[in-house]
Amino acid sequence: MNLTDRVVVITGGAGGIGAALARRFAAEGAAAVVLADLDARATAAVAATVGPVARGVAVDAADEGQVRDLVADTERRYGRIDLFCANAGVATGVGIEAPDADWDRAWRVNVLAHVYAARAVLPGMLARGGGHLMHTCSAAGVLTAVGDAPYTATKHAAVGLAEWLAVTYRDQGIRVSALCPQGVDTPMLADGLATGHLAARVIAASGPVLTPDQVADAAVAGLAEERFLILPHPEVAGYALRRAQDPDGWQAGLRKLVRRLRAADPPPA
Ligand SMILES: NC(=O)c1ccc[n+]([C@@H]2O[C@H](COP(=O)([O-])OP(=O)(O)OC[C@H]3O[C@@H](n4cnc5c(N)ncnc54)[C@H](O)[C@@H]3O)[C@@H](O)[C@H]2O)c1
């Protein structure tokens, strides 16, 4: 897909990767870019910086009724949706001890929101004979996010769902991409790095921390090639291959990295 004259929706568009995608899609000549995020004022402010093709709306991507309304309203205004980017996501920064409410929120935002988006947008795309879904998953969805159990489990589920959608709908003209960055300099990672959180330190030690704009560049290239797996950090392909070929060796390497980071900077007593 090239972005010229396309109508695009981006959830989680009020900052970070979502805002960078919006800027890049507008620069590529998109006809309309609808940013959907929880906070109306913040989303409208980001839309204003993107330019006249952008619109910011308050939507909880984990609420199916709101997602249905977002899709219906966008199709009414612009006649179609060519690309839906299910990009909203949440991390918890904790292990299995995360309260059930945090597990539930991660499941709803990182996975169910993608189901709701697909349910809402596919009927129109199928009727028109084509469309593209891009789900922002994570390298955590093909590897593991040390220190964040709900994030790891739900991002794996998100990649699985994206693959299911790709296999199921490809022959009906629907393309699906799973955008799987490793570390990106957004509040999600920056907050963890600032506090020295182990999860953030492992990410930073595993590859370069990219800017959101670099991720948007990779996304545009991946969409142009209609690639399923979009890896802004190409080294993730090598890690995933190693993990598939030798899971025990892969886990041993990761544990070694964690031990090294803990020894270099032990957590406060
Ligand atoms: N930052 C990283 O290192 C990194 C790495 C891999 C994947 N990701 C993924 O990239 C995506 C974007 O994250 P980011 O790094 O830009 O972080 P971010 O925190 O800057 O952006 C996430 C956005 O999602 C919004 N959001 C959260 N819950 C929502 C909901 N229920 N409905 C609508 N919007 C909601 C937030 O308000 C926020 O604007 C996420 O899916 C994240 O998991 C991030």
Summarize the SSE layout with pairings.
Layout: E1 7-11, H1 16-27, E2 32-37, H2 40-50, E3 54-58, H3 64-78, E4 83-86, H4 100-128, E5 131-136, H5 149-169, E6 174-179, H6 187-195, H7 198-205, H8 212-224, E7 229-230, H9 235-245, H10 247-264
Parallel strand pairs: 1-2, 1-4, 2-3, 4-5, 5-6, 6-7
Helix pairs in contact: 1-2, 1-8, 3-4, 4-5, 6-7, 7-10, 9-10
Bound molecules: nicotinamide-adenine-dinucleotide.
Number of strands: 7
Mean pLDDT: 96
Shape: globular
Radius of gyration: 18 Å
What is the strand content? 5-15%
DSSP helix fraction: 40-55%
- The arrangement of helices and strands along the chain is EHEHEHEHEHEHHHEHH
What's the main sheet like? 7 strands, parallel
Number of helices, where a helix is a run of at least 4 consecutive DSSP H or I residues: 10
Bound molecules: nicotinamide-adenine-dinucleotide
Q: Give the uncertain stretches in residue-range form.
A: none
Widest beta sheet: strand line-up: 3-2-1-4-5-6-7
- First CA to last CA: what distance? 52 Å
Structural class: alpha/beta
Pfam family, one: adh_short
Protein name: SDR family oxidoreductase
Keywords: Oxidoreductase
Family: Belongs to the short-chain dehydrogenases/reductases (SDR) family.
